[in-house]
Automatic annotation (TrEMBL):
<feature type="compositionally biased region" description="Low complexity">
    <location>
        <begin position="563"/>
        <end position="582"/>
    </location>
</feature>
<dbReference type="GO" id="GO:0043545">
    <property type="term" value="P:molybdopterin cofactor metabolic process"/>
</dbReference>
<dbReference type="Pfam" id="PF00266">
    <property type="entry name" value="Aminotran_5"/>
</dbReference>
<feature type="region of interest" description="Disordered">
    <location>
        <begin position="705"/>
        <end position="758"/>
    </location>
</feature>
<feature type="region of interest" description="Disordered">
    <location>
        <begin position="1"/>
        <end position="81"/>
    </location>
</feature>
<protein>
    <recommendedName>
        <fullName>Aminotransferase class V domain-containing protein</fullName>
    </recommendedName>
</protein>
<feature type="domain" description="Aminotransferase class V">
    <location>
        <begin position="100"/>
        <end position="473"/>
    </location>
</feature>
<dbReference type="GO" id="GO:0008265">
    <property type="term" value="F:molybdenum cofactor sulfurtransferase activity"/>
</dbReference>
<feature type="compositionally biased region" description="Low complexity">
    <location>
        <begin position="590"/>
        <end position="605"/>
    </location>
</feature>
<feature type="compositionally biased region" description="Polar residues">
    <location>
        <begin position="65"/>
        <end position="75"/>
    </location>
</feature>
<dbReference type="InterPro" id="IPR000192">
    <property type="entry name" value="Aminotrans_V_dom"/>
</dbReference>
<feature type="compositionally biased region" description="Pro residues">
    <location>
        <begin position="631"/>
        <end position="642"/>
    </location>
</feature>
<feature type="compositionally biased region" description="Polar residues">
    <location>
        <begin position="43"/>
        <end position="56"/>
    </location>
</feature>
<feature type="region of interest" description="Disordered">
    <location>
        <begin position="563"/>
        <end position="642"/>
    </location>
</feature>
<feature type="compositionally biased region" description="Polar residues">
    <location>
        <begin position="1"/>
        <end position="17"/>
    </location>
</feature>
<dbReference type="InterPro" id="IPR015421">
    <property type="entry name" value="PyrdxlP-dep_Trfase_major"/>
</dbReference>
<feature type="compositionally biased region" description="Pro residues">
    <location>
        <begin position="713"/>
        <end position="728"/>
    </location>
</feature>
Length: 758
């Protein structure tokens, strides 16, 4: 008897009709509720009816308990506008009061009602381990199955063609795929070829270490040429191919084409090539549509906390027609097998019902999965019946405002305040090609850079939270910041680390400042960030000389919207120039930061050595502003890059290591090997024919030396006369050998005694 959800009289509603759900292998152990105590048990948890688990329920009390906030009719309207976010932001996201959160690429924020409803659910229901057969376990197991199907439909994935495997996060999903590919290759004796895009996250780049053949595609055009050629330069016949790329760059927010999986499936016939889409960044603010299985990726990795803020759980969406490459995984955990023999034999039988039953090792984080159900409900209630479509439109508008606002900030000499890193084809405001992420570096008026960590720290002090660094995107850093492999090795040798970075090296930044927007951001957040950049880093100092009378010139200064003039004699030098007399600095309090900064004007008159200021808050031209130190007029250019100079930085350390570990051959050998690698890293990597011949001869000589190190006769060298065979030693008897050994040992003992002076 199939124990589906409708056989179990539980106070849980589902958006999918229970008869349509396929029964998993665990359902055979779930009771159909004929226990005598179940009536009292149901009464004890009847309050769960007030915490409906799906927004599709037709009950009138859906999410209207005393612990939750009722949904307003405007929030679910079809014509929901971005301004509606301000209506519920203070209520649903009280943690944002007085703060500006702009790091949704790391994780977005959870709503207050999500936590309240999840808490009420756990308090009102008794849940057990889904692997057990008790009633609380059956309640948990059936609910996990229903949420799995609902999560698939959240991405328009038909459960008939797709399956969803719950994992810890997107990285765990990627690792699961490559582990299965490696085991499949070993079982079928088929080598794996791996290709990845240069915008890939570190988790995708790390897959290459599990394969011997891999390739990095540096441009979209390179991928298109590869696809149009039928896989030329990719996997060969009798090889297994895997191509992975991100749906959205986590550094610049550029959205990559989603038609590559379908084109690869249609064009490649020489070797089967599967596609892995990293949708962690894309799915956070854009709808992921898997309606058509023919054009969908074979595997999709994502993290739900980037979409809803909570729970911390991820998923691997598997196209069922491609699931056969996952079947050869060797490892198995609890709950993934039907039988195991471990004593006197090694045999096991895997579950054969569904993909997720064979891939989900151990007990699922079922409480977090229950929170996922509430998260989808709250998302739909707050952001409309099609929440991801609204969020995509909303964040695209904010992203365009942010990009245009930063571009408009320029120093007085016309130098842009920020260097923005974006693809040439990216258009802010168009969600098809660009997400709501802006990566930039702040620069001074003379073009010199300000450290990205310094900008992040300054923003953090003002309650503005962004992210800075290399963002786990090595290809993006190398491309947009123009770092060559030799320079990156030299930077590492000089002490640069991702966890302890050197912000600027060789006149170039080693990371960026990233602002990533989310569903609950509003236009006021953009204004706060732009004002912070303007007040903290924008230089508006300009000078203009005006001749007011013969022999007297008046210099007008304008600094950050504040202007003043100083009459000068012909021999007067302006402040800041060589030989300029210093003006008296009146004692004054720094200007108070407010929401509006009106321009202030002041005039001065030189009477001896006394200066009168009509506005006490005006900063004279030679007074140092503690918040904005003056810039040097001419900054020396960065010296040319010489890799050998940076290699020398480690020489004193290596000499000390040699002195301390002179007896440790392993340390000395490691230093020597590193020196050889560095000495050859910057030379021509293509050896000549003579060098290759010499190398082979050295290798052969070393092999011969090591092979005959025991003193056995060596083979004759070609071109030389064969030596005379040595005279064979005479075979001595056992008594003669023992006597000779005894005499030799006695003589050795006598020598030792004489050396000791005894």
């Amino acid at each position: 008897m199939d124990n589906t959800a409708d056989n179990l009289d539980i106070p849980i509603t589902t958006s999918l009709p229970s008869p349509k759900r396929k029964t998993s292998s665990r359902d055979s152990r779930r009771p159909s509720v004929t226990f005598p105590y179940y009536a009292s048990y149901r009464d004890s948890i009847s309050s769960a009816e007030d915490v409906s688990t799906t927004s599709d329920s037709e009950l009138d009390h859906d999410y209207t308990t005393d612990l939750t906030t009722p949904a307003s009719s405007e929030s679910c309207a079809e014509d929901m506008q971005p301004d509606d976010v301000e209506d519920f932001r203070d209520r649903e996201y009280p943690m944002l009061k007085g703060k500006t959160y702009l790091d949704h690429g790391g994780t977005t924020l959870y709503a207050k009602s999500l936590i309240e409803e999840f808490s009420a659910d756990l308090i009102s229901n008794l849940y057990g381990n889904p692997h057990s057969a008790s009633t609380p376990s059956a309640l948990a197991g059936h609910r996990v199955d229903a949420i799995r199907e609902r999560a698939l439909r959240f991405f328009n994935a038909d459960p008939e063609h797709f399956d969803l495997v719950f994992v810890a996060n997107a990285t765990a999903a990627i690792k699961l795929v490559i582990d299965c590919f490696r085991d499949h290759a070993a079982a079928s004796n088929t080598p794996v070829w791996y290709g990845y895009h240069k915008d890939a996250h570190t988790s995708l780049v790390g897959v290459r270490e599990s394969t011997k053949m891999h390739r990095c595609f540096t441009t979209d055009e390179e991928v298109d040429i590869w696809i149009n050629s039928g896989g030329l330069g990719g996997p060969r016949a009798r090889q297994l191919g895997l191509f992975a790329y991100p749906g959205q760059s986590n550094m610049t927010g550029r959205r990559l084409p989603l038609n590559w999986p379908g084109r690869i499936r249609k064009s490649f016939h020489k070797a089967p090539t599967y596609t892995l889409l990293d949708a962690a960044a894309l799915a956070s603010t854009a709808p992921l549509d898997l309606t058509n299985p023919a054009t969908a990726p074979d595997f999709v990795a994502l993290s739900f906390y980037k979409i809803f803020g909570f729970p911390n759980v991820g998923a691997l969406i598997v196209r069922k027609e491609s699931a056969h490459v996952l079947e050869s995984r060797r490892y198995f955990g609890g709950g993934t097998v039907d039988m195991i023999i471990s004593i006197n034999d090694t045999w096991h039988a895997k579950k054969g019902s569904t993909i997720h039953d064979r891939m989900e090792d151990g007990t699922l984080p079922f409480h977090s999965i229950f929170a996922l159900d509430h998260a989808m409900n709250v998302h739909k209630r707050l952001y409309g019946p099609d929440p991801m479509k609204f969020i995509s439109m909303h964040t695209a508008q904010l992203g365009r405002q942010l990009y245009e606002g930063i571009c408009a900030l320029k120093h007085a000499n016309g130098t842009p305040l920020a260097r923005i890193y974006k693809d040439d084809s990216a258009v802010y405001g168009d969600p098809a090609v660009q997400g709501a992420t802006v990566a930039f570096n702040v620069q001074r008026a003379d073009g010199s850079l300000i450290g990205y960590e310094d900008v992040e720290q300054a923003a953090d002090d003002q309650g503005i939270f962004v992210r800075s660094g290399s963002l786990c995107n090595p290809g993006g850093v190398a491309t947009y910041l123009n770092w060559s492999p030799a320079e990156m090795r030299a930077a590492y040798a000089a002490g640069h680390r991702c966890t302890n970075p050197t912000q600027i090296m060789l006149g170039k930044p080693t990371g960026v400042v990233r602002v990533s927007l989310g569903a609950m951001n509003i236009a006021a957040d953009i204004s706060i960030l732009l004002r912070f950049l303007e007040e903290s880093y924008l230089d508006r100092t300009t000078t203009a000389e005006v001749v007011t009378s013969p022999g007297l010139t008046e210099t007008v200064y304008s600094t950050r919207g504040r202007s003043f003039s100083i009459p000068q004699s012909p021999g007067f030098s302006p402040p800041g120039s060589s030989g300029a007399p210093s003006l008296p600095q009146p004692v004054q309090s720094p200007p108070t930061t407010s929401t509006a900064l009106p321009p202030l004007t002041a005039s001065t008159s030189m009477n001896g050595s006394v200066a009168k200021w009509t506005d006490s808050v005006t900063i004279p031209p030679n007074t140092v502003d503690p918040d904005h130190p003056p810039e040097s007029p001419q900054r020396p250019k960065a010296p040319p890059f010489i890799p050998a100079d940076y290699v020398k930085l480690r020489k004193p350390w290596e000499e000390e290591m040699r002195r301390q570990y002179a007896t440790n051959s392993n340390v000395s050998m490691e230093i020597k090997v590193r020196e050889l690698e560095e000495s050859s890293a910057y030379r021509n990597q293509t050896p000549s024919v003579k060098a290759r011949k010499f190398g082979r001869s050295v290798v052969n000589l070393l092999r011969t030396k090591s092979h005959f190190a025991d003193g056995s006769p060596r083979p004759p060298i070609p071109g030389t006369p064969s030596p005379m065979p040595p005279e064979l030693p005479r075979v001595a008897s056992g008594s003669q050998r023992s006597r000779r050994s005894f005499e030799k040992e006695r003589a050795q003992f006598a020598d030792n005694v004489s050396q000791l002076g005894m």
